């Protein structure tokens, strides 16, 4: 299933947040969205997943969601959003409960995603016992459990320290290689964008409009830290963003 | 700064000082502000106070007219127990307490949840609660007697009213404080509204709801005695009142001690509930 954004604009009262976006998130690709702080990235993601209604334009699902998909548009949140009173498996089972699955099917899905995220040993742990990286892996497992058509991730690694972030990036690459998923991945870390994105969408400062869409055709497996092409790309993206970021920063500072 | 970071091998020389070699240990100024449970201390305070009191009465420092000795109060308690009236008083009180408290807390939960979830319900309920909560329910007792009769009705109604309002307030403020990202999460996984309320909102609000229950329990014991002071044949409150009228201070102390034990028991029960349901917090 592809997701297509057509002539999308969004306003909060008189505040224009997004202007005339056109964008396709193709099946099986990770589309990274970068842009200065406050440019409307999170808003775009809320619109994509139907948590908010666009003021203008539309968002289309092209094609059918894969069979067995319980929740085609699924979020991974920056702050994990795990229920602290439920165990790891309880948190995953929460999102399966509304669908009236048989006990075996539920158990099968839980065991499968825990295995894919290497969390099988932590089934009975509660979130408080887990580190930040583990919590986000649980949240990713929960998202995968409903077999989403598109994963909507809003800065999923921002709350983590940089070592954990590296590990989770490797995990995401591993997950994608094992079973390619479609994703819109918001970040303001350019390194994440060039490591994970098949496409990087650069937004301007508010009102956010698309400044550039950069295609990266290096396979995910070859994008290790030492790859010089990636460094060059990251530099190129930074050149694009620098002025925008600076101006956006000044705007915030002056009120 | 910059040359420290570019030359990691090099240390900045220590400033020359007369005692640079011997040095002075950094004095400790952290710690504290972390009370730990010390069960025995509380018990010891009770024991010591009662022992001093007994000693004072025996030696005549405390006149038995002013305050009877704990042993006398205990004697009065044993008389009450042996006469078989203890159970009659206690069961009458417990019945009122349980019915009034249970109904008040349940209604409070329902109305509080409504106010926490719906704007219309909130607009309707909160001004009413603010207007009626501060009224001492004892002042309304005569009205309750007219409405619900001199029997059990008015007594239960007093307790019910007393529990209801703090429970409404505790419930809707607890719901207000539920982390909205958890609710958005539920919505993003297409949980139904009922499921979001039942599986996310109420469990997240439970700590606040249980501390509201604690307050409601204390209020209901206070109101129990007040209600029983009017036209009750049996009940701990009635017993205390009668003892007061007869200047039987030993019985009065015994009755008050029973009330205090009742309060402690209820508090202990709620702590057990908290341990059971809120174990995930620690
Ligand atoms: N519900 C809302 N009501 C009014 N204004 C909003 C609302 N949500 C966001 N905004 C405004 O819209 C703008 C874009 O917000 P958004 O959160 O989408 O930015 P962002 O790109 O995700 O920023 P960041 O990088 O800080 O996460 C901001 O100026 C914000 O103040
Ligand atoms: Mg954001």
From TrEMBL, chain A:
PROSITE patterns: ABC_TRANSPORTER_1 (PS00211), ABC_TRANSPORTER_2 (PS50893). It comes from the Bacteria. It is an enzyme of class 3 (hydrolase). InterPro entries: AAA+_ATPase (IPR003593), ABC_transporter-like_ATP-bd (IPR003439), ABC_transporter-like_CS (IPR017871), ABC_transporter_ATP-bind (IPR050166), P-loop_NTPase (IPR027417). One of its GO terms (molecular function) is ATP binding. The keyword Electron transport does not apply. Pfam families: ABC_tran (PF00005). The keyword rRNA-binding does not apply. Keywords: ATP-binding, Hydrolase, Nucleotide-binding, Transport. Residues 3-230 form the ABC transporter domain. Its EC number is 3.6.3.-. Belongs to the ABC transporter superfamily. PANTHER family: ABC TRANSPORTER ATP-BINDING PROTEIN (PTHR42788:SF20), TAURINE IMPORT ATP-BINDING PROTEIN-RELATED (PTHR42788). This is Aliphatic sulfonates import ATP-binding protein SsuB. It comes from Pseudooceanicola marinus.
UniProtKB/TrEMBL annotation, chain B:
InterPro entries: MetI-like (IPR000515), MetI-like_sf (IPR035906). It is a multi-pass membrane protein. PROSITE patterns: ABC_TM1. Pfam families: BPD_transp_1. It comes from the Bacteria. The chain crosses the membrane at residues 40-56, 97-117, 129-150, 156-175, 219-240, 252-270. Keywords: Cell membrane, Membrane, Transmembrane, Transmembrane helix, Transport. It is found in: Cell membrane. One of its GO terms (cellular component) is plasma membrane. Residues 86-270 form the ABC transmembrane type-1 domain. One of its GO terms (biological process) is alkanesulfonate transmembrane transport. Residues 1-23 are annotated as: Disordered. Residues 1-12 have a biased composition (Polar residues). Probably part of an ABC transporter complex. Probably responsible for the translocation of the substrate across the membrane. Belongs to the binding-protein-dependent transport system permease family. This is Putative aliphatic sulfonates transport permease protein SsuC. It comes from Pseudooceanicola marinus.
